Write the structure tokens for this entry.
Amino acid sequence: MRKPLMAGNWKMHKTISESLSFVTEFKTAVADVKDVDILICPTLVSVNAVYNEVKKSNIKVGAQNIFWEEKGAFTGEVSASMLKDAGCSYVLIGHSERRQYFGETNETVNKKTKAALSNGIIPIVCVGETLKDREENTTFEVIEKQVKEALLGFSQEEFSKLVIAYEPVWAIGTGKTATPQQAQEVHAFIRKVCFQICKNLADTIRILYGGSVKPDNVSELMKQPDIDGGLVGGASLEVESFVKLVNYSKNIHQI
Ligand code: PEP
């Protein structure tokens, strides 16, 4: 069975000391959680400090970006082995903000995913349609292209380690969530595309939903058969709401 993963994407928020005070409180609050994998992706400058604070806990640390080359004259970039050394076990790749503001393409997503996998880091490959795509009824076409091009040329073993995040761009940071049915429809489609890529592994690959996930909508989303977790921005920045998200199954009756 697929173990749910709840991942916090802190984007460009929190200094090192703010990150540390969050995780010090958070790790105690989630210490008994065993049925959900928990991940925090702080800014790069906080990654190692956060890792040192949580390394003996059930919380994993990830980066928000990676570069595909191993080393060299690439000012401002960080390689997979450097991320690994700093304590990252996951990395977000191709987040829509990186596609929109930093020129990320399906091709760069593919190279970055390959670099992460070669260094034992689990890539969370982000895909999602814009509002324009949805209105023009090209959602499935766009998603299929993003998934196929991002995952081009991977071995079965590499494929088995990946996580995919479906994040409709129109739902990120906007307060508009896809309905559980809209999200499930695309998740099931992504799993179908995964089946075309690698028959035996389509059922095991985790597909996260991202886009204004909050304590009051998480349980309906998580009830969907093809939703295996959340990639959460805003609601991962406060200890109280992220604890609620991680404990979504316990809170089902309290919401
Ligand atoms: C995200 O950062 O990937 C995200 C989905 O943000 P938010 O939860 O704030 O919409």
